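User: I'm new to structure prediction. If I give you an amino acid sequence, what do you actually give back? Let's try with this one:
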Amino acid sequence: MAVVSLTQEQYKDIIETMQTGGQGFRANPRIAAALQLEANLGMRIGDILQLKLSDIVRDGGRYHLNIVEEKTGKRRSFTVPPEIVIWLHDYADQNGIKKTERLFPLTVRAVQKHLSVVCDYLEIEENISTHSFRKFFATSIYRENGNDLVLVQNLLQHSSPAITRRYIGISEERMEKALTSHVNLV
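Assistant: Good question. You get back a string of structure tokens that encode the predicted 3D arrangement of the chain. For your 186 residues, that looks like this:
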């Protein structure tokens, strides 16, 4: 079964539950913060867990990350919205994390395990994993930007639009339905 993208409601419920805890598990704001960053920047969880505040570079009036992706070995440089930078600085201050220390000293396995416990608690039965937060990012960007597949492809650094289509769940059947329902003859 393929990993699914989160709905907005699932995203909110998971993050809030991680922040407060539930019966049989403690709150884990650190994991909640890492997953929020994945959902807001579209990075893979492995890359997020390696981040330090020193990885965020101010470049004139903007901030950017210039990282090498763990999975692909590709260099990725992209803008980080100022709201995210402020949020990360607040998070680091609240947790006593220095600029050169990892923001999230966790393993992917630990994040996935806690996510699984929270999803069970919330009775979310879909195939949710840490990657669902990256898919949530991709699907949201796609919908919020006029269904611009190439934009999403570039943000995720996919090698082809076909990969991105599959990634965000645009099946051949959906494309065919869209085309046949769009007939507009004069």
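You can read the tokens as a compact description of the fold. Here is one thing that stands out. Residues 56 and 116 are 30 Å apart (CA to CA).
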